[in-house]
Structure formats: structure tokens, C-alpha cells
Design a protein that fits this description.
The structure is a single chain. The protein is α/β, with parallel strands linked by helices. It has one domain (about 5-140): 5'-nuclease (Rossmann fold, 3-Layer(aba) Sandwich). Strands 3-2-1-4-5 form a 5-stranded parallel beta sheet. It has helices at about 10-20, 20-30, 40-50, 60-75, 95-100, 110-120, 130-140; strands spanning about 5-10, 35-40, 75, 105-110, 130. Helix content is about 50%, strand content about 15%.
Length: about 140
């Protein structure tokens, strides 16, 4: 039985792979268990790949591929048909769309624009927008 379906923003994945934030490490370890399902779309996976390629991170190509394949392997890939224009940053809307079509319980992010939407979510959304720490609190693992 799956306790929660979760969309994970590219910034959380990046923090997991590059910066070793302990809260994010615990959250991702939890998401890797059979009780949780990570959902992704081709657009969210493309964004993660693009972020990994940024020159400022100096990641060798093989590390970029390994990280991308690990995230892709953890994820149920969803075909997104919903269109949402809610975020100040239109590039973030793909995570909201995925959360709706992927029937997510949580959108886990560190993005300020998305987190600001948590205070005024669309009434039709059935998911919560949370930080990794708030996610752990919500599922009783903090």
C-alpha cells in the first residue's frame, strides 16, 4: 500500500545529489521505499537533466547521467495533459501540472515561487506544496 504519491522538484534532487542536506537525504531515502511513489513527467525529468548540465556545478557527464537515471528509475512516468498557469515563474507550472495529473499527495520543493502557492492553493488541488522538512513532518518521519 502506497502512503503517498510525491512530485519532487529539480532543486530538491539537485540538493540531494550535490549538497548532502541531511533533511533532503532522509526525505529521499523515505521516498525510495515501497510506501511512497515518486511521479515525474518528461518535462520534469528534462528540467532535472538541464539543471545537472549547468556549468556552475562542474559535473562530469557520467555523474549527470547516473543522477538522471537514478531519478528516472525511482519515478512513475506520467503523461501530463493538464495546463496550469499559477506560478510567478512559468517554468514551475510543469510541477503543478504533474501534481494534478499524477494524483500527487505532495509537491516537495525548495522553490520560493512554488512555496508561496502553498499559502493560497487552488481549491481543486488535492496535493500539498511542502519543503522536504515539512514533508517529513507530514508523514510522521521527522
Amino acid at each position: 500500500m502506497i502512503d503517498a504519491r510525491c512530485v519532487i522538484d529539480a532543486n530538491v534532487w539537485l540538493s540531494f545529489f550535490l549538497f548532502g542536506n541531511p533533511t533532503i537525504r532522509v526525505a529521499v531515502a523515505l521516498l525510495s521505499t515501497e510506501n511512497f511513489q515518486v511521479v515525474a513527467s518528461s518535462k520534469t525529468l528534462d528540467e532535472f537533466r538541464d539543471v545537472l548540465k549547468r556549468e556552475k556545478f562542474h559535473l562530469p557527464a557520467h555523474i549527470q547521467k547516473e543522477a538522471w537515471y537514478e531519478v528516472q528509475g525511482l519515478s512513475e512516468i506520467i503523461s501530463v495533459t493538464t495546463s496550469i498557469t499559477a506560478s510567478r515563474d512559468p517554468r514551475d507550472d510543469k510541477f503543478l501540472e504533474l501534481s494534478v495529473d499524477g494524483k500527487a499527495d505532495f509537491l516537495v520543493t525548495g522553490d520560493k515561487d512554488l512555496l508561496d502557492l502553498a499559502n493560497k492553493p487552488d481549491p481543486a488541488w488535492t496535493f500539498q506544496i511542502v519543503t522536504p522538512g515539512a514533508f517529513l513532518e507530514a508523514v510522521g518521519k521527522n
